[in-house]
Design a protein that fits this description.
With about 240 residues, the protein is of the alpha+beta class. The chain contains four helices and nine strands; from the N terminus they run H-E-E-E-E-E-E-E-H-H-E-E-H. Strands 4-5-6-7 form a four-stranded antiparallel beta sheet, with no helix packed on it.
């Protein structure tokens, strides 16, 4: 009987331990699944935020202070080429843009870190570390002393220049009138606030500048009504 009770107790204990381990395992599995769900949600949120700012980042819409657009022009510029007769070596005159240093080189020679790959008429190929850059010489225009050529080139521009000239003159006249009006307004304001002695000296100076002409009509009294405080507005208008 005692042995039977011991066996039953042992079986019950083992069953309880087994059940408890299953419960613990289920809880652990649930926590793992919950953590995965949270991680997936956070990943989706980060991805959505990244998508929102992706246009800004890829197109560089917000640039740091002092940012400048990268210069994509070639590092060198072709000035001229010399292609001789049969048996002579072709030469190219290449200028480094940054330092304005000139290189007079033939095929196979170095221009800075690049090597001259080929020279043709008004064209040279430079082989760098990454790829081959082809430089072309810009067309050059020379001045001519011939009046006939100037007349021919100016035939089409004469009409346009004659039409633009009156417009330019009118703009200059309007600008001059506006400047004169501003000067007169400033002088009037100064005379209103100046003392009688200052006004007298100023008006005498204006008359001397105009050649000593006499006073004319159109005098306006100051607020106090005295003759010695009069302001000669015609003198101001004639300034």
């Amino acid at each position: 009987m005692h042995r039977l009770c011991t066996v039953l107790l042992t079986c019950c204990a083992m069953s309880w331990l087994c059940l408890n381990s299953q419960l613990v395992h289920a809880q652990d599995e649930k926590r793992v699944q919950e953590k995965k769900r949270v991680d997936r949600k956070e990943a989706r949120e980060r991805e959505s935020v990244g998508d929102f700012y992706r246009v800004i980042v890829e197109n560089n819409l917000f640039r740091p202070l002092g940012w400048r657009r990268p210069n994509r022009d070639p590092e060198y510029a072709l000035v001229a080429t010399w292609i001789g007769t049969q048996g002579t070596v072709a030469k190219a005159l290449v200028m480094e843009r940054k330092s304005s240093q000139l290189y007079y080189v033939a095929r196979g020679e170095k221009v800075g870190d690049a090597i001259v790959e080929n020279i043709a008429a008004n064209q040279v190929s430079l082989k760098g570390s990454d790829d081959i850059v082809t430089l072309k010489a810009e067309s050059m225009q020379f001045l001519s002393g011939s009046s006939r050529s100037r007349d021919k080139s100016g035939e089409g521009e004469g009409d346009a220049a004659s039409e633009e000239r009156p417009n330019d003159e009118r703009r200059e006249q309007r600008a001059a009138r506006r400047g004169a009006n501003r000067e007169r307004d400033a002088l009037r304001e100064w005379l209103r606030n100046a003392s009688p002695e200052e006004r007298r000296r100023k008006l005498e100076a204006i008359r001397r500048e105009r050649g000593g002409g006499g006073r004319r009509g159109g005098r306006a009294r100051n607020n106090d009504g005295g003759d010695k405080d009069e302001v000669d507005w015609d003198e101001i208008k004639g300034k």
